[in-house]
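Thread title: Can someone regenerate the structure for this chain?

I was given the following input by a collaborator and told the matching structure tokens would be attached. They weren't. Posting the sequence so someone can regenerate them.
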Amino acid sequence: MTTTVLLAVFIAIVGRLMADEVKAWFRWLHKRIRRRAVAKLPGEYRERYDEEWEGGLEEIPGELFKLIYSIGLLRASAGIRRAVPNAAARIRTHFDPLKRLFDITFSGVAIAMMAPLFLAITIAIKLDSPGPIFYTSERIGKKGVPFRVIKFRTLVLDAEGWNTNIVRAKESDGAVPEAPYDLRITKLGRFLRKYSLDELPQFFNVLRGDMSVVGPRPTTPGEVRKHKLSDLERFDVPPGITGIWQVQDRQDPHSESDTSPDVNYVNNRSFWLDFKIIARAIGVALFGTSSGSSKGTHDSADEDD
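Best answer:
Regenerated them for you:
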């Protein structure tokens, strides 16, 4: 009798310990499965679903049912991961043709409205210095296709023959701190660059389909050779006359090699984002940049390639 009682007590204790172990194991397993399900989600969805699924687990009674729920999360995350690219593709399917229509309309209206300004700049360039009115330079467009970008000329005629080691000088009127500028840039050219007026002929590139009104910064072949593999995503869309890089970072001399603003634009492009960038670009055109020699798609960058 005593042996039977002791055996029963032993079995009860072992059973209780085993039950606690099994519960702990179930708890560890369903948490691990939930974390794996979250990890399988696209990055922008992880924080949202991590909190949502954790709250759902806490509401379910019993470790076994929580484990079953967690396994269901794995299937849900796989479905979300498959659906998100398809949804993005559907959005892009409608967005890209509409944006092309917007580009054609906007560029056509801009060229018509600014025809007197085009004529005035043309006359001013001819009076300011000898040489052609327009300057063309090779850029890399959508899917890596090269094209010739059109700009008003802002450099002296023989700029390509100048020694790049002596093109920088200092200018100061005694009241403003001295700042470096490029000797190859004409007086009119510095004014055109300050207000981005030299880039107005790029609207013709937009009409031809080489560029878009808003997009990544146009890059030279020399710059593309320095790109990392992840940077090439910027060539999924046409380069733009203006873009995030131009309105935010053009005053930072270290930003020219930073492609992250362009890649971010490609991944998050929308009409609302385009309108905000255009509004900021108009501000740059009205109030100018701090220096007429700042780079962007300007031709001084071309000569340095």
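The first strand starts at residue 134 and ends at 140.
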